[in-house]
Structure formats: structure tokens, C-alpha cells
Amino acid sequence: MKKIRWGILGCGNIAKKFAAGLTVIPDAELVAVGSRSQEKADAFANEFGATRRHASYEALAADAQVDAIYVATPHVFHRENSILCMEHGKAVLCEKPISINAADTQAMIDSARANKVFLMEAMWTRFLPTMTKLRELLAAGTIGDVRMIIADFGFRSGFNPQGRLFDPALGGGGLLDVGVYSVSFTSMVMGGKAPLGVVSQAEIGATGIDEQAAWILNYEDARLGIGYSAVRTGTPHEATVLGTDGRIRAEAPFWSGEQLTVTAGGKTETLTLPKVGNGYNYQAVEVMNCLRAGKLESEIMPLAESLQIQQTMERIRAPWGLVYPSEK
Fold it and tell me: What radius of gyration, in Å, describes the C-alpha atoms of the chain?
């Protein structure tokens, strides 16, 4: 089978994780990397064996030897970087959150459709064996009708006013950085539907970003999604789906773990579903499968749902008065 040739735009930590993930996929090849400096591009390429190293994002986007590009820059640059790649005919896997707000996401979707190229949000958790099994269990009615979902992702970072996590101009704060995992998990379980109502509260820190936050999403039939995020408070990193006939807990850390605990029919069972590689490979495989099938988006992480998740996060932060500088 012909290999899918990957390029990576950006050379940060998440880019390194994705590059490592590609190494366990036999029909994937990292051929190129793009950075804003030749030195960084060369260092990254040397570490991961890419033969083509570009000192600009434009050069990577124009590289005829690349089939698909993973965009690994900070959230606020996702729109610009992804559209650049798509206008050069490249398939794009864009790191989550797919953008900083719904308007940017819509612009990216419009570009994908205008250029007739593939686009997907890199919500890597959704493609892990645990999440695939969770969807199967829910579809089979293992725990009856879903009534409530609880998901959290928070960690305590050292306060650094100059760091990305605390910089509003880079989309810093808990909601976009890690809260998106909880919102996306809830959306997945709810079949991609938008909540009917949203209530939330947050602590806005000294730099103007959400240091910790909590929200309740109300869905049809009075179903609830409860989530919280933080960059200054550690949380259990669990996700639990409560149904009329039982519950399923994705064990910590739910966003990268390998175990589900299922309580149903009077018994509790723990399922172990080990990952191959570091887990970032599964989303790449989904992109590759879609490309070979001639699809322009994924059925597991569709563009309409990525847009809905962005809209939901905007509704979550609206009561906080949190507006990023790029939105002003």
C-alpha cells in the first residue's frame, strides 16, 4: 500500500508526540517539517528522520512531496495555518481545539470545502481503543439510557505570566487547553448534539485567563453533562457516563487511559484496552483511512461537531466575560 506522506507544521512538544506516534504506522511516513526557523526545522527533522525541512510554513504547505499536514501551533494560529495548507491542496489534521472560536472554525470548514480537501480536528482521545469500546457499549444499551456525564481535566501549573498557558493572546487558560477534552467527550456521548442550556462559573486569574472553571450542560430529556477544567488545580482526570441501568467509567487519565470500568446487570467489570504506540497514531490512521476512501471529513470527528464544540465553549465562557485579544 502506498504510504501517506506527512508534514508537521510547528515543532513544539505536541508535534513531537505526533511524530513519535507516526513511527508505529507502517504505511505512514514523516517526510517534511515546517518551522519559522531553519534551526528548529533541522533539529526536529534530525530527531524524527524527516528528509525535508522548511524554514517557513509557506514552504511546507507548498511541498509537493507532502499529502497531509498536522498543524501543531498554538490555538490562535490554527485558522491561519490550516487555511494556508488547504489552499495548497493539503489534507489537514489540526490540533485541538480546532481553533480559538466558532467563527475561525467556520472559516476553516469553508476553506476545506472550497478547496475540496480533508480537514479534521485532532481530538486524539476519540480514536483510542477505550473510546471505541465505550461507543460500542453505549450503542449496545449496556447501561440503558444515558442520563448524566461527568468529565474533568485539570492540572496545577506553576504560575508563569509569560507562558502560553497564561497568555490570553495565545488562547491560554483551562477551557481551551484541557476543558475541550471534557466538552468533546460529552459531545461524543451525546451524539454530537448541542446542549439546550449552559451554566458555568470560572476564576479569572491575574493575566485574564480562566485558571479554573466548571459548567453544566443541559440536553434534551433533561440529560446533563458536567465538566470542569483548570491550569492551577489538579483534578482526578476521570470521565463517567451514568445510565438508567448502570455506569461506565473511563479510568484516569480518561483522555489517554487504557481501562473502562463497567457496572451493569449487578456486576462490575474492568476492561483493559491497551494502546499501540503513544496513542497519537490512531487519529493519523483515521485521516489516512479517510483519504484512501476519498472522504473529506471523518465520521467519528465530523466538522459539524467540531463547530458545535467551539460554539458550546463560547457559551461556557460567555458569562465570564472572557474575550481573547484576537476577538476584539
Answer: 19
